[in-house]
């Protein structure tokens, strides 16, 4: 897949941690994303941990979506590039060996994609149900739009969106 890019939704089946999966489901259904050339490969990953590094292989860019806990209001959308992760070390992931550790490892191994954009959505730490909390559900359409805009910007070679 050299030269293309992937959209990765990281999560689990529990509560707001499934937000990355839900975003991927909605992105797959959007005709605008399917019309992009090259069309991004969209994958939902169940708590990949450090195996996330393998998902960076063979691609020039990755857009990653994950639920986060930084202390911001539930449903807040965060947008960072790979370098920006160093500024948000307090983020907590519900995954062993989370996104930050995988990005650090990929950087150390020299296999970090040329382009990396990370979208985090602030999760409700008390929501362990099988569905998203109301605040995350309400923010999900905006998150999907932002990811779609980023994918379009990459294809059209426009400046970064956030």
Description:
The protein is α/β, with parallel strands linked by helices and 162 residues long. It has one domain (5-156): 3-Layer(aba) Sandwich (Rossmann fold), CATH 3.40.50. It has helices spanning 19-29, 31-34, 52-56, 99-109, 134-156; strands at 5-11, 41-46, 61-68, 77-81, 115-122. The longest helix is centred in the C-terminal third of the chain and has 23 residues, at 134-156. The relative contact order is 0.24. Helices cover 33% and strands 21% of the residues. It has a five-stranded mixed β-sheet, covered by helices on one side. α1 packs across α5. The chain is globular, with a radius of gyration of 14 Å.
Count up the helices: 5
Oligomer: single chain
- Name the poorly predicted regions: none
Average of the residue pLDDT scores: 86
Q: Using the coordinates shown, work out and report the CATH topology.
A: Rossmann fold
Total discrete domains: 1
Task: Name the shape in a single word.
Answer: globular
Order of strands in the sheet with most strands:
2-1-3-5-4
N-to-C SSE series? EHHEHEEHEH
Strand content: 15-25%
Terminal residue distance = 25 Å
Radius of gyration: 14 Å
Largest sheet geometry: 5 strands, mixed
Q: Give the CATH architecture.
A: 3-Layer(aba) Sandwich
Give the CATH class: Alpha Beta
Task: Give the CATH H-level superfamily.
Answer: HybD-like
Task: State the secondary-structure class.
Answer: alpha/beta
Helix content: 25-40%
């Amino acid at each position: 897949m050299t030269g293309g890019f992937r959209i990765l939704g990281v999560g689990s089946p529990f509560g707001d941690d499934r937000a990355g999966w839900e975003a991927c489901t909605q992105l797959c259904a959007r005709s605008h994303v399917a019309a992009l050339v090259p069309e991004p490969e969209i994958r939902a990953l169940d708590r990949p941990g450090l195996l996330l590094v393998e998902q960076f292989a063979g691609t020039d860019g990755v857009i990653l979506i994950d639920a986060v806990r930084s202390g911001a209001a539930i449903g807040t959308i965060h947008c960072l590039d790979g370098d920006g992760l160093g500024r948000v070390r307090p983020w907590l992931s519900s995954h062993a060996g989370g996104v930050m550790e995988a990005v650090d490892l990929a950087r150390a191994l020299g296999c970090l994609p040329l382009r990396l954009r990370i979208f985090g959505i602030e999760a409700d730490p008390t929501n362990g149900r099988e569905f998203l909390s109301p605040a995350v559900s309400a923010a999900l359409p905006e998150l999907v739009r932002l990811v779609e805009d980023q994918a379009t910007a990459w294809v059209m070679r426009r400046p970064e969106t956030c």
